[in-house]
Amino acid sequence: xxxxSLYEHRVSYYETDQMGIVHHSNxxxxxxxxxxxxxxxxxxxxxxxxxxxxxxxxxGASCDYKISARFGDRIVVVPxxxxxxxxKMTVTYRVFNKETGALLAxxxxxxxxxxxxxKPVRTKKEYPDVYELFxxxxxxxxxxxxxxx
Length: 149
Known about the structure:
This protein is of the alpha+beta class. It has 4 helices and 5 strands; from the N terminus they run βααββββαα.
């Protein structure tokens, strides 16, 4: 099995609320950071994608909170492409406390592929290399240690 470095983040003070816990909106930001990081690691950065004329538009996002993260915590976000049909994609996420291994949150984002004018793109037909790349990562699991399975 291959090991990769996962997206890690140290919780900043500005991400917390008056109760001293991470404000819920930050988890969605972390999902995006982890997704962008993942795409860079598999060789398809947002810069490269946009140079090709492809965009990944967010259609929706959700998060289920389990345990609160706090200022100074080190977290790991584990992304997974759970669905991809060449036009739409769903990415699921698990957020862990790096020190304790506790599952802090789970969530997903839903996307579609468009051109730079936001017109739908069928990657299988128009960008077969992009299609093959994303298709190859459907349901590939990465655990909180960075092990592919």
